[in-house]
Amino acid sequence: MLPREEILVLLSSMGVDLPRRTKLPDAELDKRLSKALDSAQYLTRVVPAPPLDPTSYASWSRDKSNTTVLEGIRRHNVGEATIIHDNKMKGIDNPIPLYSNAFMDVRQTLMSIANACDCGMPPIVLQDPGESSGICMRVLDVRQFDSQTPILIVVFHHDVKDSLSRGSFDWISSYVSSTTPTAMANIAATVQEQHLLLRLLNQNSKRLVPSYKPKRASTEASFTLSFLLPVGAVRYCDAACQKEDWKSHRPLCNSWQGAKWQGLTFILADQYKPGAYSLRISRYDNVQHNDAQKRMELAKHNQGPPANTHGTTPFIVKVQVNSSTALGPAHPLFKSNAQNDGGDMLIYDQRRTIDVMVLRASSDVAQFSAVADVVKAKGERGIKTFCWAIRTGEWTIDIFWTSCRSGRCGDFYTVSLGQSLKL
């Protein structure tokens, strides 16, 4: 288990920000790191029912229509593509700098490993500039989950400075001391990045079917067998994240007694402008998986009321309104004017099981304004915030408005979840 402070830093590098003084026990933080890594590699998509048997998948090179392994391992989302594009327009050659974020560095390293696969699969050595930590690795095989998802079968061994194991020494010597020395791929990787990559490798090593015994060199007998998948951004955390943030940010109330709810009537977000082309995009949509396109296709075939997956239980939603004072690149897409400032309202939950629009023109003015005014006053950039909601009907929802008797809740209860909850 990594030190507590390092786990928090690594989680933060993946967009999972927790309070530095969080009271979560070390074991829970460690578990959260594991889940974040699984989410980042879309594990349940590729390995829905572990263990993984690589022999059940065709060789990547056998399908001549496949792109390079490098292109297959590459992952990015809409938000990252926007950042890269904007920085390039500003003349910034390196929009995502190396060695400043361990998670981004791991993703870059995976592309370097994939590129090595395209160049004949040479042995790979990853080490930090000070050579205090290193990983010896070799890709044994590349299998194909689908045309955009390679599975890299690897063996690896980790050593630290002044304690090079016999296994690593023999392995390196076998490539550099032969009559025809083999070129090695050397990849610079910070110690923190190595820790994150090792965590990923060790987790996946336990997910291989025991009967899988690929051929390896005699010097690799002590190496660990594992696999690597394409890694993208962490889309959202788990229920434990919400529970911890609820503890951190909830007012000191022990019940819903005294709460006031603002009732709103909604329509489907994709019916906002009938006849207009609509595409729902999240900054976490994976470009390679066509997430946005799949959501649009689903919307075309599902025009009834959204399923009530929460029942009568209050749940967290993001409320986003249009405002002439709003900041951010998306604002120009939503026109407003002084007379109708606050425009219409978008409401959605974490998994987009509810993704709806509330029209100001067809809503109770007082209740709509009560919610919109608070969002503009207290929300991020004056346009959005988190709050509690409850479904009251097929096309109606109530937003939580509190009058806490303890006086500690404020007039409107919002949840400051930061990046622990990805919506």
Automatic annotation (TrEMBL):
One Gene Ontology MF term: zinc ion binding
Keywords: Metal-binding, Zinc, Zinc-finger
Domain MYND-type: 233-253
Protein name stated in the entry: MYND-type domain-containing protein
